Amino acid sequence: MAETAPDTAAAEVFVSLPYSVELARLRMQRLRIEEELLLEVKRQQQLEETAPPKSKWFELRTPQFHYEAHKNNQLVRGGAELPEFDDQLLEFRRQLASSSEKFKETFDAYARLQAGDATDAANLQ
Question: Judging by beta carbons within 10 Å of its beta carbon (0-12, 13-18, 19+), is residue 58 exposed, middle or buried?
Fold first, then answer.
């Protein structure tokens, strides 16, 4: 066999143990959850960035005033140039909000499942 496939003869043998398979599955599950959490953080940031300024932002006496003033200035500058942007922005925000809602439902169901409530197992799949 070494004459026909020298690389195969020198290769190490990988033994798959039951606990290593389970560890690999758990790592993948953890990575999927971390990915979903990162995507949710990104959705929340985009929702905050695209949100209009707070009502009565001009009365704020905190550092938040500058943030809200900047949002207001961008809204005033961009609103006159792109009237169709408002509809696109609202639709984008609706999609973000619905995605966040779906994530919250899935994450809550997963948390209940981890806590021992097996009735929600069917909802996750």
Answer: exposed
